[in-house]
Each structure stands twice: as C-alpha cells, then as structure tokens.
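tool_call: predict_structure(chain=1)
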Amino acid sequence: LIGISIGSQGSVIGTLKGKIVDVILSDSSNREVPTVVAYGDRERTFGDAALSTAKSNFKRTVISPNRWLGLQRDWSFIEEEAKYANIKPTFDSHNKVGFEIMYKGEKKIYTSESLMGLYFEKLKKNWHREGIDTKEVVVSIPDYCTVHERKAMLEALQIADLNCTALINESSAVSLAYGLLRLREFDEKKPRVVGFGDMGHAKTTIFFGTFTQKLMKVVSVSSERFCGAREFDYIIAEHVAKDFAAKYEQNPMKNQKCKLRLLDAVAKIRKMLTVNKEGTISVDSLMDGEDLVYHL
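tool_result:
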C-alpha cells in the first residue's frame, strides 16, 4: 500500500516498512515531488524536470493542477485562483476546468483531471523504481474539498490506473500520525485534547482532536482555501512591483515571465526571513534591462 500526500507545491509518497514510514524520493533525490506538469515541443515533463523550465516555458506549464480539480464554472473564487496560474484556465465541453496548450503542433484543452492523471502516472513510476509493484493507494486531500473535488481526484487516480482505497482528510492524516507516535502517553478513558495548525503553500487548516489509547477523533476543523505562503508572496510581490513601477514606469506583475521571476525571488527571501531579521530581494534585469533591489 502506498500513501500519497498531495500538496499545492509538492507531493510526498510514503510506504510502510515494518513500523516505519519510508518516504520514496523523487528523481532528484528529494522527499517532495513538485506538483507541476509541463509540455515541451515533443514530450511532457513532471515534477522537478517541469519546475526547472517553468519560467522559460510558462505558457505550457501547469502548476498545482490539483487546485483545479472539480471546480465549477459558477464558483465565486475561480478568478482568485486564476491569478496564481501560469495559464488562463478555461472550461471544456463537459464543463471541466482545463488549460489550452500547444503540444506536438496541436492546440487542445487538457483538463485538470487528465493533468493530475499524468502526474499520478509519474508518481507511480517512482515507487515502481523502488521495486514496489502495487496499484493500491491512500491519498490525503484538504478538508475543504467538496464532493465535486473528491470525485475529480478519484477520476484522476483512475486515469493513472490506481485503486484508491481511501481519500483521507489531511486533518485525519495528521491526527493519526500524532496519535500512533504517542499512543503510550494517552489515558485509556480520559481523552487528551490537542489543537493543530497547518499552513501550507496555498491553504491553512486549524483543527482539534481527542486522543485515548483506543480512539482518535477529529472534533472540529476550519480550513481556509486561500491562506498560505503563496498569498504572502503575492502581497509582497505586488508591493515591490509598485515601487519598481514608480521608479521605471514598468510593472513586472503585468508581464507573466517577470512576474514569475519576482515571485520566485520573494519566495526565497521569505524563507530566509524565517531565520534573519532582514533581507534583500534582488533580481537582475527584471524588466527592460532594469535591476530590482528591494530591502525588507
């Protein structure tokens, strides 16, 4: 049995060996496989390979296709999600979210389900490489997912010829991991109440669980779809872009390639600021030959 934790930025594959969860590494020997699908002139790439060309091949690169699974045309937050996409989303004849991409000389709409299906195919090759031949998987999904989104995730897994034995909410997955590691600490009858906070790349979840030696239960969950690291990055990037535009009369957030370079620089400085009090966002020749230097 394989466990897959699907994130907006990357996914982690694990399998149980004895009593230890063993993480299956990516092609680049990383614990996380970037959730990215890209189309070249003659081939598709996934994960690390797709991410490495995201800035130069942004018109044919879909980042976080899982964020679009099962979304409906009339949902109010479609435009909010679209501002983080490399490619403007559209809808196919079956009202499924897709992205119009040129591949092998033909332009067509690839749905988020088909893109995630291809991505799961790539993940499957990773565990096959380790000698694990199974189609049985358990997949964790955000607590906010609707019935439409859950059905779309199952469809993507079917495209990859995977048998999903369970779709498990992330709050339940975290609670199980916490409980199993501390089982001996719990009372047989009196439950321990524990609160958890999980901020990811694109969402935040707060939840409470109760634990005894025989029972784990998630009792309360609140999940925000648009509150994560990327939202902080975007706000900072917009602020820096306004300063740049005031100096040079050019706004890098209006140019997709410049926007991606700026967001990448902001993400790097955000990580640095977790251990430093200040830092400098620096991008050489960001737009029209002008360098960006901004101190935080």
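agent: DSSP finds seven helices and 17 strands in the chain. Proceeding to next step.
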